Every structure is written in structure tokens, then in C-alpha cells.
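Researcher: Sit down with what I've pasted below and flag anything odd:
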Amino acid sequence: MYERILLPTDGSDHTKRATDHAIDIAKQRGATLHVFSVVDDRAFLVLDDDRVGEVRGELEENALDAIATAVQAAEQEGIETTSDVDVGNPANCIVDYASDNDIDLIVMGTSGDKYEANVVGSVSKRVVDTSPAPVLTVGPDS
């Protein structure tokens, strides 16, 4: 059932909890873990043109670091991994990646801020609403 699991990561604490869940599921199922990060290009809208390149570089480096951390953890458990970075709106990029790669399950973290008003984070909510695959959201206390 779950042969291809997508783990979107930004390296944040709530993503680290999702990584643990994704690795556990992938290990139990013998699945490939697709580790994916998105450089949110909406951040560039408020920058002076001369700063875009510098900020893009920093964000890409952060994305690669987040991927490397998750891939290393998965490979230590003997899980086959693949990884990629995209640039754009995170929710759209995650859903597009899932569609393009026949993903069976998306495992992603939520910030858990203001639980009653915001059960899942805005990116997570948009992914849940539009995903072609089931989405497991992992809160900060999960």
C-alpha cells in the first residue's frame, strides 16, 4: 500500500517529528522515502532585487541541509531514499511532486500553533485539501 512516501522538510523542529514517523512507516513497509524541500519564493517579493540572489542561496542551502539530515537518518535505518529541492509555493510544490511521483503517502509536520483555530498549519492544510495521496500530519507533541 505504501511504497513511495513523501517527507516534505524545512528542517524545523515540527518536521523532525514527522521525519521519525516517516522513517518508521517506510521501514515497516519497505518503502522508498522521498525527502523533499521547497525554497519558498514568496519571500523574494519583499526583497530588493540586489538581495534576491543572496537570500535564494541561503534558502537553498537550508533546504539542502534539511534534506541531508532526513536522508542520513533514513539511510541509517536501511531505507532507500531519493531527494529533491524545488522553488515556489510550498503547498503547490508538494502536491505537484506527489502527483508527478505517484506518492502513496505524505508525512508532514504541523506547527500546532493555536490548536483550536488552526488544527494544521497553512501549508499542511492546503496539502491536505488538495493532495492526490493520503496525508499524515504530525503535530509537535506527536
In short: The domain at 4-138 is CATH 3.40.50.620 (Rossmann fold).
